[in-house]
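Researcher: Next entry in the queue.
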Amino acid sequence: MTTTTQTTVVTGRHGGVGEEDAQRAALRDLVKLSAECAAAEIEIERTHRAQVQAANRQLETALAEIQQRHDQLMQEAQQQYEQRVAEITAQHAAAMADQQNYESTARSRFEYEHDAIENDLKNKLQQAIWLAESVFEATQNQIAKEYRKAKETHAAQLEEADAMEKRSLELLALYGRRDLAEAARAAPPPQASEATTAAAQADATAQPAPQAPPPGDFQIHRDAVKLGLAQLQGLAIPRLFVGMRPYLILVGAMLLSGVISQLVAGGLPYLSYGQV
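Model: Structure for this entry, 276 residues:
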């Protein structure tokens, strides 16, 4: 449109048109240009509105797509979140179930081991009690047996001691020392070798009595007493005055003195008869 107007103006100049005609032509061109500008403005406005509407539609479409994409992403994120929460919940539930199973199994194992240990300790305690009772009973029986044996041994030793005491008193009475026998009966039980000491006092020629052993061993004391009794029983001089021996000795002494008197006086009768 601008090109056409410029051509018309140039043609008028070269055709020799007057100034008025030129002005009128310029005015016409200006009016025409104004009309064209108005039409162009209208077209531009229409195009602008169309483009704005198209842009708005595109914007709305893009916003709708963005919103749809956003909603889709939010939905997917929510689904993923819910799925992840469900997985974590399932894992937590499985872990809790495993933990409960492990705890239950461990508790059952601990209770079983506790019961086994408790039963073992009870059995060991019962065995220890039974063993202690058995040892106590065996020891008690052994002590009772040893006590009975010691009691029997003590009774036998007392009987043997009484027999030796009786024998020593009989020997003292036999040797004419009834005073010592009565003193021994009245006195406490004699220590070993007291009877031997009394017999040694009666016979100065007898061997000295052995020294009494210290108290504690019965066999040592018994052997000492037996030795003293043997020495007391074997005294020679006191036995000369026991039983019929004094009378026999007296008769023998009288006969011997008669024989000696006859020999001193003139010999024996049968010797004198033989000489005649």
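Model: The radius of gyration is 81 Å.
Researcher: Noted, moving on.
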